[in-house]
Amino acid sequence: xxxxxxxxxxxxxxxxxxxxxxxxxxxxxxxxxxxxxxxxxxxxxxxxxxxxxxxxxxxxxxxxxxxxxxxxxxxxxxxxxxxxxxxxxxxxxxxxxxxxxxxxxxxxxxxxxxxxxxxxxxxxxxxxxxxxxxxxxxx
Length: 139
What we know:
single chain, 139 residues, alpha+beta, two-stranded antiparallel ribbon, elongated
């Protein structure tokens, strides 16, 4: 009988690496959403700066998976708002607001959730295929 080689272990390893990466991405997005309306603690200071996850391809079980390498600060400009009564206002009465767009973060979160679910489906399908193969071999 010929040897049967299975790629299901590498398939599951790649999918699980993607699950970990998307989980990290969702944590970063949640932090951005939580700080979307924060201001600086000192007058004229910088508020929370949006964070962006950086991914890199990684060899896993003879295949290519993904890993969240680091989190970087988004260098786009802060929004400003005239609010002279705010303790974070500068000399001219302007307050810097975070460079977080809640709509963009919500869309990024939805995309990360869908990628997470897709990788869960890959793992479930690979397990089901393994199970069916074993059932066929037993007969």
